[in-house]
């Protein structure tokens, strides 16, 4: 029997605390690929995002460009969005100044253009 990490003097069996499972081949591959991406990220990636339920963007399909700068991973990748460099700055400023109105307009535009 184990007590405080040491076997007792009784004749009960002792137990090993070493893990009994091994890392799968797919886990090793994912880890290796993540290390490679971290060491040499692609300069440009894209992603598709589905609008979350119960938001102005519900069921919309949105495309995102991700840009890795040369100082990655010291600084995060850029997604290209800020009020100053938004495709339509007026929409970005509406988001910052009047979120309720922004969400109303965003819901209408999502239903119209992103489904």
TrEMBL record:
Q: What InterPro entries is this protein classified in? A: UBC, UBQ-conjugating_enzyme/RWD
SUPFAM superfamilies in alphabetical order: UBC-like
Region feature Disordered, mapped onto this chain: 1-28
**Which superkingdom, per the lineage?**
Eukaryota
Give residue spans, biased composition: Polar residues. Answer: 1-27
Stored Gene3D superfamilies? Ubiquitin Conjugating Enzyme
Question: What residue stretches are annotated with the UBC core domain?
Answer: 42-78
Q: What is this protein called?
A: Constitutive photomorphogenesis protein 10-like isoform X2
Which organism is this protein's natural source? Arachis duranensis (Wild peanut)
